[in-house]
Amino acid sequence: MLVPVRVGILTSGGDCPGLNAVIRGAVMKGDRIYGVEFLGIRDGFRGLVDDDIRPLPRHDVRGLSRQGGTILGTSRIGPFAEGAGGSARVREVMERHEMDAIIAVGGEGTLTVARMLNDDGIPIVGVPKTIDNDLSATDYTFGFDTAVSIATESIDRLRTTAESHSRCMVVEVMGRHVGWIALHSGLAGGAHAILIPEQPVSMEQICAWVDAARDRGRAPLVVVAEGFKPEGTEIVRDALDGFGRPRLGGVGEWLGPIIEEQTGIETRVMTLGHLQRGGVPTSYDRVLATRFGLAAIDAVMDAKWGHMVSLRGIDIETVPLHDATRDLKSVPQSRWDEAAVLFG
């Protein structure tokens, strides 16, 4: 079995609090315990396509756990895009730099690419990253706790101005296909309605919840995930993202005027957007991300190619990338029913 001595690491897809903690954990342990040399791959898989790679010594990762963003940069460019060269190009660049293995840190798209590269014989290990917490095969992903904390603080701040003016406040948070951020921040912030992609809710019901809160002397608060489909219609912007998907956003602006018209309550809308991705990670995310980085280099040294590190309870394990990318982890009916008792 080949013992890796030069390992490349990349961060791909959307940025996320905790990425730098993963990098630091992997490099610190790799250098101190295994004597591994690291290479930083710039801007995700783009660095493997364009051969944009630099040394990543231990000195460069000092103090990184508290820093947001990623020192390696990120992008949504993949090696299987037209003209990118696919696995053959990745293998060529790895050989040029004498790179023995890759640690790929990212969400569903990144880990799917990692799985495809592994299927073609590229030695690669994955680390799950997404603020949406929508990856199956892991209980939590780092970045989620930070996003929920930011959304909850924002909701707390918006409530004070809403209550001062007796207004209804609609807060739009991230969540393209799943509503974990909306559910957790809405529960933490005491929302009177939480709207998520997994659960169809009629405008009649939404307005009934708003009316009920107002009738009790409260300023109604509605938390909505960007992927919620009012009346079964997905609200999109006139643009595509890096994967060719319509950009979501605007469902809050769609809901606000209708709520005001049907309830007679003055309504304001706030879209938190990329605020949820920015800033320093919470202590929970710093610890989880660091543990993922430590476990990732262990997986590399154990040649667990095609696997991803995963949180199970309080333990870090490894699972096949095929399992991790097979299904999205959506909000189950039981969690929705649990929260819905508090609505209105």
Entry keywords:
344 residues, alpha/beta, Rossmann fold, 7-stranded mixed sheet, 4-stranded parallel sheet, 39% helix
**Mean of the pLDDT scores?**
92
Task: Give start-end ranges of low-pLDDT stretches.
Answer: none
* Helix and strand run: EHEHEHEHEHEHEHEEEHEHEEHH
Task: Quote the beta fraction.
Answer: 15-25%
Number of domains: 2
Which structural class best describes the helix and strand composition?
A: alpha/beta
CATH fold label of the largest domain: Rossmann fold
The CATH architecture assignment of the largest domain turns out to be 3-Layer(aba) Sandwich
Number of helices: 11
Alpha-carbon Rg, integer: 22 Å
Helix content: 25-40%
Strand order of the largest sheet: 3-2-1-4-5-12-13
Query: Main beta sheet: strand number and arrangement?
Result: 7 strands, mixed
Using DSSP, what is the number of strands?
13
Name of the CATH first level of the largest domain: Alpha Beta
Quaternary assembly: single chain
Gross morphology: elongated
Catalytic activity: beta-D-fructose 6-phosphate + ATP = beta-D-fructose 1,6-bisphosphate + ADP + H(+)
Keywords: ATP-binding, Cytoplasm, Glycolysis, Kinase, Magnesium, Metal-binding, Nucleotide-binding, Transferase
Function: Catalyzes the phosphorylation of D-fructose 6-phosphate to fructose 1,6-bisphosphate by ATP, the first committing step of glycolysis.
GO biological process, one term: fructose 1,6-bisphosphate metabolic process
